Automatic annotation (TrEMBL):
PROSITE patterns, per the entry: COA_CT_CTER (PS50989), COA_CT_NTER (PS50980)
Keyword Ligase annotated: yes
Protein name: Propionyl-CoA carboxylase beta subunit (PpcB)
GO cellular component, one term: acetyl-CoA carboxylase complex
């Protein structure tokens, strides 16, 4: 019997190159063409666009399924339908995985899940963000309960990593059933527009059979629906490249982990720059709506503001910017939508954003102009009490620097929910146009003087007179300032400078909480 003779190194390397070539071809030419035919890039092409050139390092490259059922033993692919690893994005270390739809529809089985989990484990050890590019038919049917177990393991990693490293998902294909929940557990979801991209718990076919409702894939779970109605999606990308660009822009505001400060950038915009346009942007007439973003763009460095959840709950605006080079999270009422009143979606949106900022050492700036919480049965039945409480909880819980600027109306529970001194705000400023009270003038007067108005000879006149008196007392910042609730009343043009100085003073802020397992935010 001839002894096994190990081939030469040259031959071994040649064999390795052939195998690697096979790995890089994913599910093969035909499937790649099919993928391209849908307007989608392959997993490898996506990673190439995401990472700095030549800087991606793959892990578990050759790992494949152990399953044999339904012919899987004859249908194995290296990599098992997901590429995982780490690399540099704009010079910073980041982990990523990209599901490869050309291999078994990017479906998730035991090995596939294990690769994602391993990437997360490494990312957690070294404190680096994880980006998931999802493009998958969901749980791999042939691997039965092992696929479901795999999802469980991924979800657990999402939760373990929450608040430790930033997690971003790019929705770059379908996601059905439980597969939607990993994206939902991450911090930010970027979804691409177009027919090839959708996510839902129950698809159109089963929806029709079970409740008789007919709906298209896009109307049920397209990017626009999730960005405007469900609030599942934070950013809509015009196309694949746009999704990568948004991801990079978002990363530029985030620290790599919860032990780091967010990245400082010398923006060249002077901290004491006067916001000359501030006065003309905000009408003193409190019923006149305006778009708070016009003010935000003028306050932040070089007008660069990355708005989060831009198309959902537009009555509150949240997003990232820089002041004097330092990253801030901004939470601002927007009177251009529902008069800036807070409803359940706005409360959810703000609370989640504030909690993200707090977890990752990003100071929060509140710009206040709200008449209160939205009244009516619709909101009460949906639980404005429960949802509104989330904002209070998020601000009170946050230990990052918190600065509030009241630019116009600040009424009732919403006044508190936008962060005031007793809730833990470090600094509270008001413009001369601020109005601070328990409730708006007409409502207040009707409650305080109900009997007098009813029995008055001219009720309308008395109402008007009392409203004027109430406005005189409360439609200004000075009553509250005299009581020590406002640190200073400032000229609108000084807003940026005042915030910059406050942030500088608060840089080394330390605030401690009672030890506990975790709080119980009203969900
Ligand atoms: C195994 C799958 C698969 C899956 C797709 N494929 N989904 N293989 N398990 N879940 C395979 C197909 O058999 C096909 O293989 C290849 O991937 C491409 O799929 P197509 O159907 O040809 O692609 P397309 O027409 O683009 O349709 C995409 C799709 C459809 C809409 C996603 O594939 C689909 O409906 N898949 C099943 C979705 C599903 O019900 N998943 C389970 C959800 S529940 P060949 O060899 O023909 O190329 C779930 C539970 C998670 O995920 C629980 C977590 C708690």
């Amino acid at each position: 019997m001839a002894l096994y003779e190990k081939p030469s190194m040259d031959k071994l390397i040649e064999d390795l190159k052939i195998l690697k070539e096979k790995v890089y071809k994913g599910g093969g030419e035909e499937k790649i063409n099919f993928q391209h035919g849908k307007g989608k890039l392959t997993a490898r092409e996506r990673l190439n666009q995401l990472f700095d050139e030549g800087k991606f390092n793959e892990i578990l490259t050759f790992a494949t399924t152990r399953a044999t059922e339904f012919g899987l033993d004859k249908n194995r692919f290296y990599g098992d339908g997901v590429i995982a690893g780490w690399g540099k994005i704009d010079g910073r270390q980041v982990f990523a995985y990209a599901q490869d739809f050309t291999i078994l529809g990017g479906s998730l089985g035991e090995t596939h899940a294990n690769k994602i989990v391993r990437a997360y484990e490494l990312a957690l050890k070294v404190g680096a963000p994880v980006i998931g590019i999802n493009d998958s038919g969901g749980a791999r049917i042939q691997e039965g309960a092992l696929s479901l177990e795999g999802y469980g393991a991924v979800f657990k990693m999402n939760v373990m990593a929450s608040g430790v490293i930033p997690q971003i998902t790019i929705m770059a294909g379908p996601a059905a059933g439980g597969a939607v929940y990993s994206p939902a557990l991450t911090d930010f979801l970027i979804m691409i527009k177009g027919d090839a991209y959708y996510m839902f718990v129950t698809g159109p076919e089963i929806t029709k059979v079970s409740i008789g409702e007919e709906v298209s894939y896009q109307d049920l779970g397209g990017a626009i629906i999730h960005a405007t109605k469900s609030g599942v999606v934070h950013f809509v990308a015009e196309n694949e490249q746009d999704a990568i660009n948004i991801t990079k822009r978002l990363l530029s505001y985030l620290p790599s982990n919860n032990m780091e400060e967010p990245p400082y950038v010398d923006t060249g915009d002077p901290a004491d720059r006067a916001v000359q346009s501030a006065e003309s942007i905000v009408p003193t007439d409190s019923v006149k709506p305006f778009d708070i973003r016009d003010l935000i763009y003028n306050i932040v460095d070089n007008s660069e503001f990355l708005e989060v959840h831009k198309l959902w709950a537009q009555n509150i605006t949240v997003g990232f910017g820089r002041i004097n080079g330092n990253v801030v999270g901004i939470v601002a009422n927007n009177s251009a939508y529902y008069g800036g009143a807070i409803d359940i979606d706005a409360a959810d949106k703000a609370a989640r954003f504030i909690r993200f900022c707090d977890a990752f050492n990003i100071p929060v700036i509140s710009l206040v102009d709200t008449p209160g919480y939205v009244p009516g049965t619709d909101q009460e039945y949906k639980g404005i009490i429960r949802h509104g409480a989330k904002m209070l909880y998020a601000f009170a819980e946050a230990t990052v620097p918190k600065i509030t600027v009241i630019v116009r109306r600040s009424y009732g529970g919403a006044h508190i929910a936008m962060s005031i001194k007793s809730l833990g705000a470090d600094l509270v400023y008001a413009w001369p146009s601020a109005e601070i009270a328990v409730t708006g003038p007409e409502g207040a007067v009707r409650i305080l003087y109900r009997r007098e108005i009813q029995s008055a000879q001219n009720p309308e006149e008395l109402l008007k007179q009392k409203i004027t008196e109430y406005k005189k007392l409360f439609a200004n910042p000075y009553w509250a300032a005299e009581k020590g609730l406002i640190d200073d009343v400032i000229e609108p043009k000084d807003t940026r400078n005042v915030i910059a100085r406050g942030l500088e003073m608060l840089r080394n802020k330390r605030e401690f909480r009672y030890p506990k397992k975790h709080g119980n935010i009203p969900l």
